[in-house]
Amino acid sequence: MSDTLDELLESIDRALVLLKNRPEARYGADVENLLRIKRILEGLDPDEIDALLDEEE
């Protein structure tokens, strides 16, 4: 995996830990959405992710 992809996945993992530690039920949907995004990112080619992010800049 590319460094960019690793950084994105690590950020998602940190956000998941923070959200899961909150007692509010409203964050359940956010946790599920972040898990979906993580699965999508893991399925993409790391070079594609780098190219997409380069296009934004």
Question: Can you give a write-up of this model?
Answer:
The structure is a single chain. With 57 residues, the chain is mainly α. Helix content is 79%, strand content 0%. The chain is built from three helices and no strands. Helix 1 runs antiparallel to helix 2. The longest helix has 18 residues, at 3-20. The chain is elongated, with a radius of gyration of 13 Å. The chain starts with a helix and ends with a helix.
Main sheet, how many strands, which sense, barrel?
none
What is the radius of gyration? 13 Å
Shape: elongated
Strand content: under 5%
* Element pattern in H and E: HHH
- The number of helical runs is 3
Helix content: over 70%
Mean pLDDT: 89
Please mark out the parts with pLDDT under 50 across 5 or more consecutive residues, or reply none: none
SSE class: mainly alpha
Cα(first) to Cα(last) distance is 21 Å
| Count of extended strands | 0
Characteristic terms for this protein:
57 residues; mainly alpha
List the helices and strands and how they pair.
Elements (H helix, E strand, L loop, with lengths): L2 H18 L7 H16 L2 H11 L1
